[in-house]
Amino acid sequence: MNKIFVCNIDELEEGEALKVDCGVNGIDALAVFNSQGNFFAMNDRCSHGNASMSEGYLEDDGTVECPLHAARFCLKSGKAMCMPATDPIQTFPVVIEDDALYVDMAG
């Protein structure tokens, strides 16, 4: 398992996102989200344009809206939920160990 440390779970508040530089498997950075106490990770770059998803708008329905073109993506699957985006964003499993949050970059 190729895990990247993100932060302690109490450092990422509900409704917030964090950008994590990683440079692993061709991914420059990750966006990690706390949505209603659940943690999600995806490529930080929007599939439609050069925008940081960690700067997007976290919605109560489990999606994040791109800050540049208002495309929405599912936090669980990365699926594009509306135009102008049509391509998904790669997502990654989140692992919690001893109150620390990691992203599993294996594969």
TrEMBL record:
InterPro entries linked to this entry: Rieske_2Fe-2S, Rieske_2Fe-2S_sf, Ring-hydroxylating_fd
Pfam family, one: Rieske
PROSITE patterns noted in UniProt: RIESKE (PS51296)
Keywords: 2Fe-2S, Dioxygenase, Iron, Iron-sulfur, Metal-binding, Oxidoreductase
Domain of life: Bacteria
Keyword Translocase carried by entry: no
Domain Rieske: start-end pairs: 4-103
Coiled-coil segments on the chain, per record: none
Molecular function in Gene Ontology: 2 iron, 2 sulfur cluster binding; dioxygenase activity; metal ion binding
Protein name: Bifunctional 3-phenylpropionate/cinnamic acid dioxygenase ferredoxin subunit
